[in-house]
Specification:
The chain is of the alpha+beta class. Helix 1 packs across helix 7. GO terms for molecular function: metal ion binding; metalloendopeptidase activity. One of its GO terms (biological process) is protein processing.
Amino acid sequence: MKAYQFIEEKEIKELETMARVYEHKKTGAKVLCLENKDDNKVFSIAFRTPAEDSTGVAHITEHSVLCGSKKFPLKDPFVELVKGSLKTFLNAMTYPDKTVYPVASQNDKDFQNLMDVYLDAVFHPNCLDNYRTFLQEGWHYTLDKEGRLCYSGVVYNEMRGAFSDPESVLERYTFHSLFPDTTYGNESGGDPEDIPKLTYDAFKAFHQRFYHPSNSFIILYGDMNMEEKLNWIDEAYLQEFERISPNSEIARQQPFGKMVEESQYYPISEKDSSENKAYLSYNFVLDAGQDAKKSMAFSYLDHALLSGPGAVLKQKLLEAGLGEDVFGGYSDGILQHYFSVISKNVSEERAGEFLQLIQDCFLDAAENGLDHKTILAAIHHDAFQYKEADYGSTPKGLVYSLNALDSWLYGGKPWLYLEAEALYKELMEEVDKGYFEKLLKEYFLNNPHSSLLSLLPKKGLTEQKEEKLSEELQARWQAFSPEEKEQIKKVKEELTLYQQTENTEEALKTLPVLSRKDIKREAESYSYQEESLGNRKLILVPGESKGVLYLRLQFHTDGLSEEELSYLSFLKTCLAYMDTENYRFQDFNSEIYLHTGGFSVDLTAYPDFVEKDRYTGVLALDFKLLQGELKNAVEYLEEMLFRTVYQEEKRLSEILLEAKSRERMRLEGSGHSYAVTRAMSAFSPSSHFQEQIKGIVYLHFLEELEEDFRKNPKALGEKLTALSKKIFSGERLLLAAGGDIGIFEKEKKELTDFLGRRFPEKEDWRETKFAGEKERREAFSTTSQVNYVASVGSFQGEAYPYTGSLKVLKVILSYDFLWKNIREQGNAYGAMCGFGRNGESFMVSYRDPNVQRTLEQYRKVAEYLENFKATELELNKYVIGAISELDMPKSAYTKFLLGLSCYLSKLTKEDLQRERDELLDVEEKDIRNLSAYIKRAFQEKALCAIGNKGELEKAKAAFESLEEI
């Protein structure tokens, strides 16, 4: 390859990959080829993008370059790709020091198209000449209904949402406290207070400096002709550029001479008590350079000290009453790694005690030794996961590419963090040699490059900030001349007109699109077999799993009251995290992870797609097992299910406080999910179940349970003991196995004996019938600056059968109507929808500045569909986008769970094939006919909005109630 200089190569045997590094001769672009037989190919281009302020220019640039380019002059080629590509991954990510643009596909033609669009987007974006893209994605002035001046913009509102979460605010302050003189001291995503300071000229200058081949890191992964791809990248893009010096090297923070101390504030509502509601955070830099062994070892110190079950530092902080929840740990992925210890809900006056206990614990562990079994268990667990390489829906090539950047971006070898087998073995041998204790002494004890942060509660802080901003903007509006005011109105009108203008047919044709003929017609099915084990039914889901057996014990929940379901959700949290008759819970977890591939507990509901007023609620216990480990799983199951000691009040208190804290954190981060579940719970059997176990009902349950526990701590242990006996019975048990069934057949005797001994009752597998409740229109206010607005309903009925065309409708609404009206014009960070086989339907917005406006847009969907028109090219894209979601590569474990789901939900191979045929054959009239489904489902009987009190107040006429959470 004449255009590239070969630098070096490395065979990574454990990944069956040949890694080769090149440099583009003309521009200096760095290239990494990871060649192997994986057909899920990945391409990514990354740029070092150090932030010099907190205006979010890196983040806004990431959004903006995907809004049209020289070769593909559409307004939003990213959306067109989502609609019309067989991508297995398509996104872009802004990090504190880099911006990454990755794509993946199993289809060769599609993969080439994705590479072309992304390379043209980053090197030739239209946003450099189109000011309106900057206004839309970054920030702009707008006038609200009362004529008051406001800020808006997609990134602006996204970051308002991020800065509403106290944990995210604390992370921002942590970076600033440890790295004040570097890029990490600024907010690359953008601080809402600083985003409006960004000018269009500064935005363009940022792109010119950093989005250049001389500052790029290109990675190709998978089964492809690497030479052909690299030559094309050179000829199509790189060769037109000259080498520059972007001066993008990430600066290293000079070590501190002593710890710094800082205090900041986060908002709480007026009804919340501020007593013992501080966050205390001790943070220190672990500057070990490019050392993969130490980096891995630090993660195991994190496990032993803070994040693992019964971690010693966490337990000591909890036992001392220094917080209701303790978290943090080791953070890598940047130039200088760091460690945080965070206590939540503690008095700020105890900061000195908090710091002293941490140092005492580090000293004691360094001198007297850590729990070596805990460290060995963590290493064994990670080694299993590394070999299994199951990253869910994320292509493993993307995981490896991002890992490569963790060293390559800073001048290290790109495979530094990819070769792990030898390190796992080496660290296992080092455990008993004092290696981890030496690291504690060298890096943890009395580290002067550290910070002690106090994040303090402040009532009404959100409202105070909003009022201050409003006053500043109104004063600015009054100071504007009449000409300036008219210009602001004109710019906003031009932006709105631009957003409402459709792409031209000519522009759409520039984007390469696959045809429906490129799509296989045969539906992927998830086969299962009904067998027996002893006198018990057994569901087998065989699959290629690299020698891993999946074992799942499921107990149905029929007959449990709503309150018992909430208690069961808490019991799930306790399993394996409380002492048993023979093990301390710390030791029990270590045993499990040393002698199995992993364990998890799941509490979920399977809808019945035939009798749609029914569902199957299950508490499931899952093991991943290698050959010879089934007997271990049986031993652990018996200990967990029948010998757990639920009466340990101190431990129960710890779990309860942490569960309440984590549920609140999930609500703040995933308000859209909570809003949909809450609104659907009145008519959806499975959502009603979910609301009791992880919704707003469950959050209230935990708050009340904490109060009751303080009054009568004995009662909770008694309740859990009684409930465990009720749920863990043979009548409720259904057994399933998947993956490598050969292991199961060879080793099933121990399991058969265990089942006969502990579950002699004949199974009585039952579904639960749900009568339904009155639908509700509810609003819940938090201290958030943004909103999550859900409208839900059901089209269930004989005249409205489920059809595969609804999968196409999901793509059309998500990436056309909702995208344009709620994201682009409404400036929400996102909007989505879904249509279930049982008729359950939803539309919901994410990090949305609006409530009333969003509800108004939902009302227009039926009319939009009645008048729906699409060219064959456009309809083709929607179909391919829907197929790409169906055909996403699935891991062996995911296929096991899907097979089980098909069995429990009565979904047949014929159903899946019919739906796929309907999807592939969809016509324009089929989409128009779905307007009747929308009218039936969305009648505004069931609404839920969670978010900013002020915005909810403005829209209160739409709701029956407004309650603070």
